[in-house]
Amino acid sequence: MNSAERRPSRRAFLGAAVTAGLAAGCHAAPVSDGENRPGPIVPTGAHQAGIIAPQQPQSHLLVVSAEVSVAPGPLLAGLGRQILAATAGKDERLLGLPAGDLTVTVGVGPRLVRAVSPHLPGAQDLPPAAREEIAPADRGGDLLLQICASDPLVPPIVAAALLATPGVRERWRQSGARGPHIPVSDGQTAPRNVLGFVDGIIGPRTPAEQQRDLWIAGPAPVAGGTIAVVRRMVLDVARFAALPVAEQEAVFGRRRDTGVPLSGGAIGDGPELGAKTPDGRYLVPAGAHIRRAHANVVGAGLMLRRSYSMDAPAPGLLFVSFQNDLHTFTATLASMEAADELLPFTTTTASGTFLVLPGFDEHRPLGSTLLPA
Measuring CA to CA, which residue among 201, 192, 191, 143 is closest to residue 167? Predict the structure, then answer.
């Protein structure tokens, strides 16, 4: 990244995201009128909140990776109780802020999963990849906290409360904000990223697709969970912005203004990878991101992406994906490394994979199916 590049301040970035969210009709910031404040998201059930609930992700996110130095079962059960209190607005450590649509999604790292069984989903570390500049402290972790809310003040306050738990030590964190919500199909939306393109359009949307590609079906200790991949990616915005729009669109394989694939159709349609011009050129170029990451090209399942744009430490993307098999992500990344024209604009500076635990409630503590309290 050119050190002379002028970057917007964090305040300006978050302000722009909030303004864009309001223009799109979503509740991007807390307001004094209780009728307009986003309502609570139910934290209990078969799956944790913060994955497919809410359907339109909140405007602000904080991801924290931490180490665990105490017995994980009791620790997770205690975190679950704190989450129930916080999302209900009953934790005094919220400092008087309404919880609103707060969600806290918890995952455990491969080390803790392997201690139960090396054969369980989630026991595999994420292997190193190309275009990474990751300090040892910024790779992996034992505990994932994904904290989302429409009020930008809520995630850091909730993180401070949860990280005060004895035996938890923070490794790295990253906050982000989502840009304008663009309608995709059937109530689904996707945001624009800091490169100006609609991001995260294709994924497991229907219940059948989610059962096939998102939720872990078994074995019993992890059934109802999923595998999260989290990567902090710095983007060379200045160099990408210097490209003509047509070249930018060739990198992504979509129109920048509408998000429609270069092969035509609607924004929510998959690209027609075989479509060609009269002179025999692919409408979606061979190195376009939507071709290299396409499930049929990769030969793997779909990923549910809930990524957020970031301004600090540099403009970029906090990539978050959920899938029931880590191979879905690693195979997709291998396909991208082979020819994806987007990858040269990225540098990954933090990364980790976590088993997102099955859902919980007052009678079934968080993590109890895997790590009994």
Answer: 143
DSSP 198-260: B---SS--SHHHHHHHTS---SGGGTT-EEEEEEEEEE-HHHHHTS-HHHHHHHHTB-TTT--
CA dist 146 → 197, 224, 306, 360 (Å): 24, 17, 11, 16
For 262-279, give the DSSP string. Answer: TT-S-TTSPP-TT-B-TT
Q: Residue 245: count other Cβ atoms within 10 Å of its Cβ.
A: 11
What distance in Å separates the CA atoms of residue 327 and residue 349, rounded to the nearest whole number?
A: 21
| CB of 366 closer than 8 Å to CB of 76 | yes
The length of the chain is 373
Q: How many Å apart are CA 51 and CA 225, to the nearest integer?
A: 10
- Closest alpha carbon to 18 in 157, 153, 147: 153
Distance, in Å, from the CA atom of 252 to the CA atom of 285, rounded to the nearest integer, reads 9
Q: Which helix (H) or strand (E) holds 141?
A: none
Specify the DSSP class assigned to residue 357: P
CB atoms within 10 A of CB 325: 16
Question: How far from 368 is each of 185, 357, 358, 359, CA to CA, in Å?
Answer: 37, 9, 9, 10
Contact between 163 and 64 under an 8 Å Cβ cutoff? The reply is yes
What does the angle CA 36 – CA 317 – CA 40 come to, to the nearest 5 degrees?
A: 25
Cα-based angle 333, 124, 209 (whole degrees, multiple of 5): 60
Q: What are the pLDDT tens digits along the chain (373 aa)?
A: 433 333 444 444 444 443 344 333 334 444 444 556 789 999 999 999 999 999 999 999 999 999 999 999 999 999 999 999 999 999 999 999 999 999 999 999 999 999 999 999 999 999 999 999 999 999 999 999 999 999 999 999 999 999 999 999 999 999 999 987 899 988 889 999 999 999 999 999 999 999 999 999 988 999 999 999 999 999 999 999 999 999 999 999 999 999 999 999 999 999 999 999 999 999 999 999 999 999 999 999 999 999 999 999 999 999 999 999 999 999 999 999 999 999 999 999 999 999 999 999 999 999 999 999 8
